[in-house]
Amino acid sequence: MSTATHEETLGFQTEVKQLLNLMINSLYSNREIFLRELISNAADACDKLRYAALDNDALYEGDSDLRIEIEHDASANTVTLRDNGIGMNREDVIANLGTIARSGTAEFMQQLTGEQQKDAKLIGQFGVGFYSGFIVADEVTVRTRKAGTSAQEGVEWRSRGEGEFSVADIERDKHGTEIILHLKDDAKEFADEYRLQGLVRKYSDHIEVPVRMPKIETAKDDDGNEIEGSEVTTWETINEATALWVRPKSEVSDDEYKAFYKHVAHDFSDPLTWSHNKVEGKLEYTSLLYVPGRAPFDMFERDGARGVKLYVQRVFIMDDAEQFLPLYLRFIKGVLDTRDLSLNVSREILQQDPKVEKIKGALTKRALDMLKKLSKDDEQYKTFWSTFGSVLKEGPGEDPANREKIGELLRFASTHTDTAAQEQSLAGYIERMKEGQQKIYYVVADSFNAAKNSPHLEIFRKKGIEVLLLSDRIDEWLMTHLTEFDGKTFADVAKGELDLGDVENEEEKKAQEETAKAKEELVKRVKEALGDGVQEVKITHRLTDSPACVVLPEHEMGYQMRRIMEAAGQPLPEVKPILELNPEHALVDRLEASDDDAFGQLAHILLDQAIIAEGGHLDDPAAYVKRLNSVLTA
Ligand code: ADP
Ligand code: MG
């Protein structure tokens, strides 16, 4: 009966094989999600056909009543899903159902461990999609034909999920896709009407396309007995089948919002929060934005998927419309449905349309407000921050207009708790500021410990002034853009003149000046001994425990950023530090008392140590060791 021709057997891409193996093991306790994934794909296929048919009605082939049908056969142990969506041609089938064409997939797969719990989480983050059929099926058959092609151009794909699949040409009079799952022995429970209906309602109620199941009706005679041979099949729509975002907020339950999130975001786990808004007036749009509960595996890939699903007057236009949100909010998922764009809008047009910029501005505000609300819940916000905080830190640089709002959302580690957890808000910092303190102080280093133990903090600790401890790669860059918050400026404690504002009184300042004066001769000698190695030598009161530290001029690029740029192969002009000496320290006393030879050794040692304490690299480490040893053995 089969008219299949041009049959070939192909191997799955390595990553697909790995995914299949792991998925089957790790998602066993969650296997019902296969139905959600396949319905989600069928709904996407209907959306795509509706879009393509906008300028070519013929693609409907006379059947514009888009729908998904689910049937089962308990005796054959099969569940069949059918859609009259866009369908696939042979090339599509091989690419879509034989490979995973997402960048970073191979790297992602390497992270999988073989441990069920961990991998289930990771796979969820990746999105299981079509292949989830193999969690319940030992054989999957796909019959499909792309809308607009001839009946001869149908394709049949078959696989047992064991490394290879076959494709063959078939005749298929309808466009769209049919997926037949041959259930595994232990998954027979799914060949059941009630079970399937329950799952459709649980996972796919929000899908706009109707999901139908057959209902066999039998006519009855006057006595109420079924009339033999009178069975007719009618189709019953199981899901709500209206676009969720179109419904009023008050009528949508949390569970429905969550289920819808999984469909739009291709995610497996619940979102942290969402914001659903209808806007009428100059701009007319409905948006439903979500904050995911975890990062997609490709968040830091340049070409990772991002943006919202775009609809124009309920018609699906495109996935991942990235023009409506700034990059630093790329983790936000959701839907935008607008009347302000035309149905034949393309990515190119989106880039030029001034309305897009306006909607982007509005959505950005919505998203920031949503995060602000989320920040009221400490636990949830901790999850958010640890997942997306480093992305949000790109905000002040990318979007100066919203700097203040973003500033409210930032969290830092600080000397307030001295723990690595980034939990302090700037508002909290300002509340704790000392009397007379005008600036928000921070230190940047390569690691939390280096920041926490930086010699620059000594005076701040002594005076009880809080300092933000920054050690993320992006932090120094962030601080070059965050210049101000709530009317307060920021100061890097390792740069420029030490300025404690009015925390120090006149007497202290005077005493410092006097000490500096008394040590003028020492400073001169050190500068002579170090020559070009330093820009300047000074007496400082920053330090309580360390003998010396290096300070960078106010507007010089910091050490963290320098190291990042150098690692990226960027040539940078040499920077000469300012060496500051602690007049209270025994080593400085000893330096002062040394004769010229020992003086030179010790001065170099102090400078090199200060550079090391900063996390810096010495140009000539061997010379440092030699000098140190000669002093130790003297
Ligand atoms: P995703 O949905 O995240 O793209 P899937 O693994 O679920 O990933 O599906 C892979 C691809 O296979 C889809 O992007 C789509 O191109 C194609 N596909 C799957 N199911 C269908 C379907 N019912 N009709 C048309 N294309 C489909
Ligand atoms: Mg999918």
UniProtKB/TrEMBL annotation:
InterPro entries (alphabetical): HATPase_C_sf, HATPase_dom, Heat_shock_protein_90_CS, HSP90_C, Hsp90_fam, Hsp90_N, Ribosomal_Su5_D2-typ_SF
A: annotated segments: 1-347
Annotated stretches, region: B: 348-563
Function summary: Molecular chaperone. Has ATPase activity.
Family: Belongs to the heat shock protein 90 family.
Compartments where found: Cytoplasm
Region (C): 564-634
Oligomer status and interactors: Homodimer.
The Histidine kinase/HSP90-like ATPase domain, residue ranges: 30-187
Main subcellular location of this protein, as a coarse class: cytoplasm
UniProt keyword annotations, A-Z: ATP-binding, Chaperone, Cytoplasm, Nucleotide-binding, Stress response
Keyword Nucleotide-binding: yes
Taxonomy of the source species: Bacteria, Pseudomonadati, Pseudomonadota, Gammaproteobacteria, Oceanospirillales
Protein species of origin: Vreelandella malpeensis
Protein's recorded name: Chaperone protein HtpG
